[in-house]
What does this fold into?
Amino acid sequence: MKRAALYSRKPSAQGADRMLPAPAKADDTHPAHTAPRSASNITQRLPLWAALLVCALLSATLTWALTRQAGAPQRLTQDDINAAVLHTLNTQDLPSRAARAAQLIAPSVVRVHTQDEDKKNPQGEMQNTGVGSGVVISEEGVILTNLHVVQGAKRIQVTFADGTESEALVIGVQPENDLAVIKAKRLPDDLQPATLGSSQNLQPGDEVVAVGFPFGIGPSVSAGVVSGLNRSFGSEGQTMMRGLIQADAAANPGNSGGPLINMAGEVVGIVTAILNPTKARTFIGIVFAATIESAGGGMGVSPF
It folds into this structure.
């Protein structure tokens, strides 16, 4: 509660001068003419500094009395604040850090699906031949994804967070990091690009979140920590990728091309591969992501 202003009763210097007694007349000193000693008379007989001190004390006393009467709130202590925070934590269901981060990136995550003219359904329509994820990095509809998601596709379509669908074209590639830049032809009315962070501040143990469309289901969220940095990975017959982020946030086929974000909702990497020594293409605990710095710099499309 805002405390009401209390105006000081302390007299100004000019007011103090006016309180000084006038020069005494000759007969004013006669005992017969001595007036009773009231409070005002006492202050008149005191020196100026003493009179001011008395007035200050009276003002302070009056201020204290008015404050007590008005029931002014006491100043909060650190213990009061700690108790209030603890009460909130015990009585309110607050979203987790991973949930808050996922909410920030959600409007920028897209589903990427490819079609092939050689594979058509009985109605003669092209069938989806692959699915992946992507993240919007500009209001013009520029999207980062994996090269293996769109490579060789006859047609690329993206679905934005609001349900808008659009055909997209490849405008840049970076084979050494399995990355591609695509651009949508049709955009939502209010397209929200992701906030791009930096992998330079990451440390093993930092919390991260992966958002994408594993097996086409989603958007799906998985959380984990950074397991390592500057990793190298290359499956049989593929180019060795270097400088990768290793994390344990669950990823599966369909997560490829999706964002890896920090707890501020900033994109720090692009999910590009999972490690599995078996032939089952499923997650067993290790996912690799290309850093956001390499994703932008190597393709001539700077994310910063």
Notes: The chain has three domains: 13-90, 107-184, 199-297. DSSP finds seven helices and twelve strands in the chain. Confidence is low (pLDDT under 50) at residues 1-44.
